Amino acid sequence: MDITPSAKAKDYLDRLTVFMDEHVYPAEAVYQQQHRDAADNWAIPPIIEELKEKARAAGLWNLFLPDPELGAGLSVLDYAPMAEVTGRSPIAPDVFNCNAPDSGNMETLWLYGTEAQKKAWLEPLLNGHIRSAFLMTEPDVASSDATNIQCEMRRDGDDYVINGRKWWSSGAGDPRCAIFIVMGKTDPAAPVHTQQTMILVPANTPGVKIERYVPVFGYDDAPHGHMEITLKDVRVPASNILLGEGRGFEIAQGRLGPGRIHHCMRSIGMAERALELMCDRLLSREAFGKAIGMHSVWEERIANARVQIEMTRLLCLKAAWMMGAVGNKAAKDEIAMIKIAAPAMATRIIDDAIQAFGGAGMSDDTPLAWMYAMQRSLRLADGPDEVHRRSLARSEFKRASQCLGIDIRSIRQ
Amino acid sequence: MDITPSAKAKDYLDRLTVFMDEHVYPAEAVYQQQHRDAADNWAIPPIIEELKEKARAAGLWNLFLPDPELGAGLSVLDYAPMAEVTGRSPIAPDVFNCNAPDSGNMETLWLYGTEAQKKAWLEPLLNGHIRSAFLMTEPDVASSDATNIQCEMRRDGDDYVINGRKWWSSGAGDPRCAIFIVMGKTDPAAPVHTQQTMILVPANTPGVKIERYVPVFGYDDAPHGHMEITLKDVRVPASNILLGEGRGFEIAQGRLGPGRIHHCMRSIGMAERALELMCDRLLSREAFGKAIGMHSVWEERIANARVQIEMTRLLCLKAAWMMGAVGNKAAKDEIAMIKIAAPAMATRIIDDAIQAFGGAGMSDDTPLAWMYAMQRSLRLADGPDEVHRRSLARSEFKRASQCLGIDIRSIRQ
Amino acid sequence: MDITPSAKAKDYLDRLTVFMDEHVYPAEAVYQQQHRDAADNWAIPPIIEELKEKARAAGLWNLFLPDPELGAGLSVLDYAPMAEVTGRSPIAPDVFNCNAPDSGNMETLWLYGTEAQKKAWLEPLLNGHIRSAFLMTEPDVASSDATNIQCEMRRDGDDYVINGRKWWSSGAGDPRCAIFIVMGKTDPAAPVHTQQTMILVPANTPGVKIERYVPVFGYDDAPHGHMEITLKDVRVPASNILLGEGRGFEIAQGRLGPGRIHHCMRSIGMAERALELMCDRLLSREAFGKAIGMHSVWEERIANARVQIEMTRLLCLKAAWMMGAVGNKAAKDEIAMIKIAAPAMATRIIDDAIQAFGGAGMSDDTPLAWMYAMQRSLRLADGPDEVHRRSLARSEFKRASQCLGIDIRSIRQ
Amino acid sequence: MDITPSAKAKDYLDRLTVFMDEHVYPAEAVYQQQHRDAADNWAIPPIIEELKEKARAAGLWNLFLPDPELGAGLSVLDYAPMAEVTGRSPIAPDVFNCNAPDSGNMETLWLYGTEAQKKAWLEPLLNGHIRSAFLMTEPDVASSDATNIQCEMRRDGDDYVINGRKWWSSGAGDPRCAIFIVMGKTDPAAPVHTQQTMILVPANTPGVKIERYVPVFGYDDAPHGHMEITLKDVRVPASNILLGEGRGFEIAQGRLGPGRIHHCMRSIGMAERALELMCDRLLSREAFGKAIGMHSVWEERIANARVQIEMTRLLCLKAAWMMGAVGNKAAKDEIAMIKIAAPAMATRIIDDAIQAFGGAGMSDDTPLAWMYAMQRSLRLADGPDEVHRRSLARSEFKRASQCLGIDIRSIRQ
């Protein structure tokens, strides 16, 4: 296992780091101020588009896309440390055009889109002119079991007619959001893994209604937003289908791997930032006659944070390396592992950082409370912890039963 | 140790429980709707004043106050289960006129106020006509060490002139909030426990400026609000002092006990509500072929929740009983214990409940995320966990050193 | 809920405490030395019988038995604090003739024995002349599910013929152990709760074979011992049955309550002792320029230990109080709770104490490692944690389903 | 970072794995039986020497030693996975002549020994003819602070005269143990890091007395043993000094790195074995109508075990890789991290495995309880967790203070 970044990746990473120092961190306060001052809470603060221009000019653009012409042509492993760096700042992923869910949507279009689909949607997304959303989770069923999905997609001539209710459609609150990838059932009678289909639905299609934003611990996350959306007799041409009817599950699988690496590496970036903030605070305030950090109760937290960050990063890099070495499917256990490990690690560290800051930690004087909410949501997004633990445990049991020479199906469940 | 409620308390509790079922729980959604619909985010939803009228008419009013004429004349122990019940609903404490910080402020005025002070401020507070705030914590110093407080109170003729910056002044956002109790230093050169003084400052005194609300995670907690307030050359008559110059610490000590019981019992009420919601959800959704609750991973969480709630409640009731039996001072270790135990227990249970609900748990479709933020803040309010653990550990060491026959002061620190 | 001890209990407790200080703690080292020096590892160190004489002379004898003539006539609640005190020393329970499993066996005989059975076995047990064992757990099945038990009891004329294999038969290694209460199946075809029967089997009955001691971690727990025992065509008269055929489960239920209180209170006593030892150590050694306890990392552990001990004790006392107030059956949830809470709490605290002592903590220079092993075993004895959590969670779900107005049996399991 | 094993290492690892399957695992029960049957508890079961012959013949001998002639010539990184494999079986390290403390002692002699010292002690150690011990920890001081060491080494002519008391001298109980490396103070007045010296003391030198074995959770760990040893006027020639007077600390530093990698990788091997045993058990027993593993409460534990093992292994391999890439000194934080992470991870997993096995888990029917004791002891050996957390936290603070542009020495401690 060799996780040394390529020379090209090393160069990108160095330049990205410099760009963060010079342009992104100093812009965080500007962003906050512009957002606060805006008449419309859902408007994009102008600083974002300015930074995007700069990032693009600096060649720090679409770094996530493995395509060497459309993106930077980096492997998942090579891109991973850059995802970590962008995770350090709430505004960075947008600046470099590598924010979720757009990056995942772009990758999906790149992998599975027709030329026409690419022309219509991938191109403006890569240019950063539009944004996109991914409509999968539904409020009315336990999304932990993906077979529960109810959104109906009925063929009607050359069209599909879609009816359903989705929520946690992140980014759909963005005024620039123009296209949705929607997951639904085209054939509820089919075998469980071929019932579902992904289809492209322009945001302005009649019948699409954004009902509300769904807050996360009080945050509206404007102007990004996690939206609840109803689709009522929404009609799109059959040519909007991605890959083919009944192949939604297949795409979801293929899509998941890189997206999880990105998410988890950003979680690590956030944890590093929290640890950095925590150390600074502990050194700069005193209580009971010495710097707070010199009270050894904090040594335990700081040391555990460092250990946890290092271990989680290595696991993510291993998962990324495996995707390249043996493919996304063979790496599925490792991908489940980082999904379990990274947000849990980040929430613990951020929570300690909040404690170190006292009241300021819970307020918006630090990004910590928002980070906490964000990372806490990742223990539920893309399947709750319990589902990934179930899947991982079953892999272990399967391996164990093979060693024991028994058929796992003979075990009473 | 007898923690059986008195007959009178039992009767109040029964009536309170019925009132909650009949009036309060059904009003939660109304409150939310009115708050959402209000032009002014900081206006009080009308349902509150309606419910207050009903509660007062039902004799469920100022139950927290031990005074038999002004309040219900109940002991801390007798009132504790009622605090728990009111903690179950975010709107309940206000309805029964027993919300923090008003209840603590009323008790302070009742115990330490002059007749004139009582007439001016206690009476309208008891009537529910005005609200109050308590200005202690400061943004610029580590509040974990109370001796760090910097707010200056300078004697000038018959007045005091106050300069300082306070935050986390909860309730100061309420349009009805008319009076502040302010903690500051009258004599920085005095021995450490007589430097500080509490003084009454009407909210509309010139020089008082509410700078902003401080959010808790993403919640503004409007119309209650946790405010940052500057005091610039604020002048109040010396007669506004509570108890006497340099006696602020003494009041703080006396005030703390009952307030902590109330807070902790409300935490328990919230935890019970969270457990109730969690069980309901686990029984009403299915995944992988059975109700989610029937997956035994949830048994551990449910069982631990029940165990933790029961234990924490007993500890709170013991602390309350001790306050009556041996006095607040002798109960100080027990009061530290519940301050450590109750919010930590509640956050853990609420976090599990969030996990049970998935996305809905983090949103405002359930009260869980708000409850989490609220309880998390209580691990910092009135001193962070670390300070209470320090104090408790030192009690243990003191006891141990006595058994060993050594003088604790001879231990190298 | 009134958990104030009666005057009689208070008096016993005071005298017990004095006796512990004067006779028991100083004898611990003597016991260890005698045990080490003995030619036979399974011989009873003479100090034990000396102390028993003293305890009996002091009237501190059979305090656990509610019978006022045969025992002290104390309620479970009144006896509980005495169980705690005896739990502080590994040798104390034997000294006061209130050790498990004898106390439970005596209580069983007292409640369910015939006059002849009492004459033969209860009397010498109460006199401390013999010891007893309880043969329930079996090595070949998951004992977490009590219906799995396989030991066969076949009626043959006026006798029962018993075949089976038992283990963790604690106390059966004691040379004084003369009688076993054996649980087995008399009717495997009966409804699940009437299949099992308890029968008295003298230790010297032909066909009884003590195969070995089962170590707990590295401890043989000699001369007490947890034995593995085979019963091969063991024949006892039908008059040895307790209460009646098929009533084993019923006795097990009745027996469990008080025994669990005793066990859990002893766990608390052990935790207190560990905390005491830990504080002493932390004050008497220095590292990095101050007493180890003055490094604040220990404050967290000490404070949490105190909080956990207090809470667990209150829960145990509540469970004991409920047994008196509403009966063992109505107290079953509370009894499950303490079974989950007490050993888990004790292992955590003892583990911290071990850490405070360093190498000495794991050795036999302190009783800590043995305490750890002992308490760890209690997370498995009488049903593993998981079973009690399952039972408790199901109570919660039952209550929740009633509130929801649904029949719990309609939930898909 | 490239942690791919070299082709040579891959070959060794494959052969080692086969050897384990064919010879070592099947011999575990033989070892236990021989040990149980031996008249002398401290005799070496004959199977060990037989296996050593086979291992040596197979070329699986002294694999740990980087010297290509005396050992296998593997880097720390290349050897690490082999250490893991040997950690899976309690008897394996001895079989391959790579057990602690011998491997560390051999490495010390190889690095710092004179030719005469090597001839006398390294040669027979490499041949597996003798064993050795490392005498550092002392019972009378807090060993968490290495400067506390008291053992006196006084120069007297051409000799040194040693007086002191040591304990936890592992392996000194082995009848083959012939040589001790002793750490003590030659110059208490010197600067703190040059006070101490390491010297070779043959086990049979007059004045050396093995006082007793120190048990670990009841285990005597015979015939290895952790001994308490007094040195009374023990006289050895000055030529027995390693490296030079006052250079004990320097050697300790150099020695620590590889040893910690070995220890931690063995911890991982043990954790893997525990997980394997746990899965087997969960699949082969039923409760409440299905295999125990199918109760989802176990999914959480199994999944967390897998995640923790993977992460810890990666961290250990990174630390090993760093030692090669940047040297032991620059890798000191990583080495501290694995010392904190690995035994803690292993104890958690083993504890869960014990729970899965019930009573069998605590007994000697499985190796789990012994593994637990062993891993628990590693949270104290070579410095308790607290010391490594302290050191790691201080590195973080140092880095943070540099970023803040402040001198860490200006922080009030």
Automatic annotation (TrEMBL), chains A, B, C, D:
One of its GO terms (biological process) is fatty acid beta-oxidation using acyl-CoA dehydrogenase. This is Acyl-CoA dehydrogenase. It holds the Pfam family Acyl-CoA_dh_1. GO terms for cellular component: cytoplasm. Homodimer. It comes from Shimia aestuarii. Residues 13-128 form the Acyl-CoA dehydrogenase/oxidase N-terminal domain. It comes from the Bacteria. Transmembrane segments: none annotated. Residues 246-395 form the Acyl-CoA dehydrogenase/oxidase C-terminal domain. Its cofactor is FAD. Gene3D superfamilies: Acyl-CoA dehydrogenase/oxidase, N-terminal domain, Butyryl-CoA Dehydrogenase, subunit A, domain 2, Butyryl-CoA Dehydrogenase, subunit A, domain 3. Belongs to the acyl-CoA dehydrogenase family. PANTHER family: ACYL-COA DEHYDROGENASE FAMILY MEMBER 11, MEDIUM-CHAIN SPECIFIC ACYL-COA DEHYDROGENASE, MITOCHONDRIAL-RELATED. InterPro entries: Acyl-CoA_dehydrogenase, Acyl-CoA_Oxase/DH_mid-dom, Acyl-CoA_Oxase/DH_mid-dom_sf, AcylCo_DH-like_C, AcylCo_DH/oxidase_C, AcylCoA_DH/ox_N, AcylCoA_DH/ox_N_sf, AcylCoA_DH/oxidase_NM_dom_sf. GO terms for molecular function: acyl-CoA dehydrogenase activity; flavin adenine dinucleotide binding.
